[in-house]
Amino acid sequence: MAARAATGAAGARALVRRLKQTPPPPGPFRPGFWRSPIRGPWLTSVFGLVLLIGIPLLFVTGMLSYAAYNPGLDRINDQTPDKGLLGFYLFDWPTHPYWLYRLTQGVHVTLGVVLVPVLLAKLWSVIPKLFEWLPVRTVAHGLERLSLLMLVGGVIFEFVTGILNIQLYYVFPGSFYTLHFYGAWVFIAAFVVHVCLRLGRMSRALRSRGLAAELRTDLAHTRPEPPDPDGLVPQAPAPPTMTRRGALTMVGGGSLLLLVVTAGQSIGGWARNTALLAPHNRAPGSGPNGFQINKTAAAVGVNPAHLGPSWRLELRGSRPPLVFTREQLLAMPQHAAALPIACVEGWSTPDQHWSGLRLTDLAALAGLPDAGSVLVESVQPPGPYASVVLRGNQIHDPRSLLALHVNGADLSIDHGYPARIIVPANPGVNNTKWVHRLTFRT
């Protein structure tokens, strides 16, 4: 048996030697195909350093966005079943400060868009590595290549799905939340492995050239870097047509432009007028209900027949169910709160002035003044976010309302008439519209 194993190992080594002697196929697999004289470890490491700072922040804010949906509270809230250990960090999402979700999700989406030019530049700088010949030389080399495949595939998948979702053109099969969540964990695992393998080389490459000196180097004095063991520097470089300064300026300028045309959807105020790439930032209309919405009543299958005179609000708790007409709800003491709506796509409204009934008062009416959660059900047909469960801290925040009015007027149908939920720091889709039943639970 030992002899057969030794024979097999020798045969494998012989096969590898023969493959190494085989010339690479034509095109990008041949070293002479890549000729840019500015490609090399230093430029790659500059882009890598930006991503080394930006990617962890992007990942953390994405995980916070997931926690904000309170997926551990109830399966109704859980858009990523069987997450297992990946949900180890989940915590009770707070209601203070009221703009928390607006901040974390705004940073997540804006940073993701801003990093696109840097990501593309980084992929351009290392593209010869993707066409390396032989594709696999040793077991260690194969593991490194596998981590690279997971890294590149994961980052492309995460950025593409995220950008399509925020532009309302999500076309992938399955739930965006599920795919984006698991994709993020696959990508970040590959990212950590890649950083551990390359951090030393990146540090040496960054020390090999000064940033200030490169920014002063003109086209006439642009030279290729010395040959490197990773094969990023071309063997036969072409004459330069751009300086490294120019490459950094182009990428930085692209990121700055994307920041200007995206960030205003979260910042608000005068900056909102610059958010040209934000689909929800377009003129939302006039009147007291003239602020952004995600989906109209018609889009989710809600029609006026569901919301006419026969509509009732049902309260359930420790007492027999209570049923109220809208007029009876309006006759109760009304409370007000100034809160925005912030959505997973990164957009948010300015603070809107809501009025209605406090959830904590409704819990007391239902016989559970110390309710630990509430199941909120909408009249919309069954589907994602037709129902949601809110935590006890969300119920008992005095700004958490079953809203009946906004900005001094009745809710419009598209904004949730006859009644909707509004809770501080709550993702927009969890502020359920067209509410018809609240079930308070211990």
Automatic annotation (TrEMBL):
Where are the stretches annotated Disordered? Answer: 220-239
Q: Which SUPFAM superfamilies match?
A: Oxidoreductase molybdopterin-binding domain
Keywords recorded for this protein, A-Z? Membrane, Transmembrane, Transmembrane helix
Q: Which residues cross the membrane?
A: 42-69, 107-127, 148-170, 182-200
| Signal peptide stretch | none
Which InterPro entries does this one have?
OxRdtase_Mopterin-bd_dom, OxRdtase_Mopterin-bd_sf
Residue intervals of the Oxidoreductase molybdopterin-binding domain: 310-441
Instruction: Mention any Pfam family matching this sequence.
Output: Oxidored_molyb
Protein known as: Molybdopterin-dependent oxidoreductase
Tell me the organism's taxonomic lineage: Bacteria, Bacillati, Actinomycetota, Actinomycetes, Kitasatosporales
